UniProtKB/TrEMBL annotation:
InterPro entries linked to this entry: WHD
Keyword entries, A-Z: ATP-binding, Nucleotide-binding
Molecular-function annotations in GO: ATP binding
Leader peptide range in chain numbering: none
Provenance organism: Streptomyces calidiresistens
Protein name (Swiss-Prot/TrEMBL): ATP-binding protein
Cited Pfam families: WHD
Amino acid sequence: MPPPGEPADGAQPSEGSPDGSPGEPAGAARGRPDGPGDPAGALALRLTALRRRVAALVERRSADDPTAGDPLRGLHLPEAAVRHRLRTPAEPEEGEILADHPLHGAAPVGPDDRLARLARRLDLTDQDTAILLIAAAPDLDRNFETFYAYLNDDVGRRRPTVGLALDLCGLSTLDALARDHFHPTAPLSRLGLLDVGDRDAPFLGRPLRVPDRLIAHLLGNDVPDAALEGHVRP
């Protein structure tokens, strides 16, 4: 599985390649003008910043990876990949590279930034907010499925994992406070904003998902969840 964004057989890069170039995330805000009353526009700005950080991480990890161009990467584990992992430090120095591509935190990036509003109301930190965006990205822009599958080194794992979210936030996987963001009693899980799946899997490999109802709210849909029918007033 070659690094996302690299054309194969002379093809032109797709519009969703994480090359850091300006562009609109697929599906999130296409056909919707930026401005007041456009929550999708704020999400589009956040996703663009995230795409740049993903691109930087892909570039960093594929630079010396002998299997980066392997079309079967993520489907098998060749000896070269194992030897590369053995030579790679457990905590690669990626912080400086990612620092050049900051993610938006809890501060609003647009006039109707619902993620910022949610963070303010629930007293979420910048890191909480970034983790929510990382987890929500595949449901807002399908290209992130490809990006995450590459970074997860597994074509079947198209959602971010705990480990990948920490990497994209520039946090150490050995930092106890950083790992605490994913604890069942931490705000993201306790408030029902983030689902950390597969509790039997190794901690860093557990997939992250944002509930569909929250995704809809962030995009501007305030129709109550069907489970609340008969229990809330319009």
